[in-house]
Specification:
Length: 120
């Protein structure tokens, strides 16, 4: 499933970043995930990529490439494996959604994908 090193790093960063706001590291996964998304564009990108087919979208692959070029340096050997792990996990999460969850998820994914330049 998920790369344990990535999860540990994300959890540590989240716990440290949430501590000044009085939020414990034991909060629900959704709260932690939201904070990580704000701080970690790779996680947000993984959610958007994982939701392409789930939300009935068709991304401009050239735009995805440009986005990744801007997001990451070419000498980062872990980027691809981290992105693949997070994308795979997000796809599993998508499949567990209720119809209302899917509506909410896809509404936001459409907005984010448009903001990233992946759709029109």
């Amino acid at each position: 499933m998920r790369n344990m090193k990535t999860i540990a790093i994300c959890a540590l960063v989240t716990a440290i970043s949430l501590a000044p706001f009085g939020v414990s590291a034991n909060e629900e996964d959704d709260a932690i995930r939201e904070q990580m998304e704000r701080e970690n564009p790779i996680l947000s990108l993984a959610d958007v990529l994982a939701s392409e087919q789930f939300c009935g979208l068709n991304y401009n692959t050239a735009a995805v490439q440009i986005f990744i070029d801007k997001l990451n340096t070419p000498d980062d050997p872990d980027f691809t494996s981290i992105l693949q792990t997070l994308t795979r996990s997000a796809r599993i999460d998508n499949e567990k959604m209720t119809p209302s969850d899917k509506t909410a998820q896809c509404t936001q994914i459409v907005r984010i994908a448009r903001g990233y330049g992946f759709t029109h």
